[in-house]
Design brief:
By secondary structure, the chain is an alpha+beta fold. The chain has 7 helices and 4 strands, in the order βαβββαααααα. The radius of gyration is 18 Å and the shape is globular. It binds glutathione.
Length: 225
């Protein structure tokens, strides 16, 4: 039996969703973030040394890192799914699949994480004489690095979705599942804006999937920010 070590409001929502798409039986073990620091509780480090979520256990196998979990589940159980969730390797769609699977964590998440951190720096309580300096540095990093990168990436994703209905081509795949977290986080942290009708329409389509909704029921309330 697969166990998803699920942290509230986290990337492990994607793993629940993939398992629902695959129609697999699984258990959910819940972990709650510390309300102040938002960090995972120390128990999670008993499953994997980094103590981050998602992590799954399948018998005596533990797999961490969202993209690696997606690959493990597809390699091990993909044949049980009634619809393929990964295009054939070595094809144009197979290359697109691999690209977006890595892009989600490797390229899309870093500026989103920086936005979260620098917005927090600017709004955190601090001695009055430090405030203008901290806010000034934060505003500069956001303006010169984070926001231009976010915009470039969102424009690129939007453009790709004008060529194909889904990230890896004409069919829904696990690349869409992996991309859901950065797109939801971008919508919550930065706003998608008027220039992204395709991305917004794609978000509507993924949110309407039965497996997405079932995963929300299994994982509990989920705030995208
Ligand atoms: N790239 C990793 C990121 C893992 C990660 O940072 N997870 C966050 C939740 S979304 C976490 O566990 N945060 C709590 C903590 O760092 O203590 C993945 O995709 O699995």
């Amino acid at each position: 039996m697969i166990t998803v070590h699920h942290l509230n409001n986290s990337r492990s929502q994607r793993v629940l969703w993939l398992l629902e798409e695959l129609g697999l039986d699984f258990k959910v073990k819940r972990y709650e973030r510390d309300a102040k620091t938002m960090l995972a509780p120390p128990e999670l480090a008993r499953v994997h040394p980094l103590g981050k979520s998602p992590v799954i256990t399948d018998g005596n196998i533990a797999v961490a890192e969202s993209g690696a979990i997606v690959e493990y589940l597809l390699d091990t159980y993909g044949h049980l799914s009634s619809v393929p969730l990964r295009p054939e390797r070595g094809t144009p769609d197979g290359r697109r699949f691999s690209y977006w699977l890595h892009f989600a964590e490797g390229s899309a998440m870093p500026p989103l994480l920086m936005k979260l951190v620098f917005d927090k720096v600017a709004s955190s309580p601090m001695p009055f004489f430090v405030k203008p300096i901290a806010r000034g540095i934060s505003a500069k990093v956001l303006k010169t690095f984070v926001e231009p990168n976010l915009k470039r990436q969102l424009d690129f994703m939007e453009d790709e979705l004008t060529k194909n209905a889904w990230f890896a081509g004409d069919a829904f795949s696990a690349a869409d599942i992996q991309m859901s977290f950065p797109v939801e986080a971008a919508a919550a942290r930065a706003g998608l804006g008027e220039g992204t009708p395709r991305l917004q329409e794609w978000l509507g389509r993924i949110h309407a999937r039965h497996a997405y909704r079932r995963a929300l029921e299994r994982g509990g309330p989920y705030a995208y920010a």
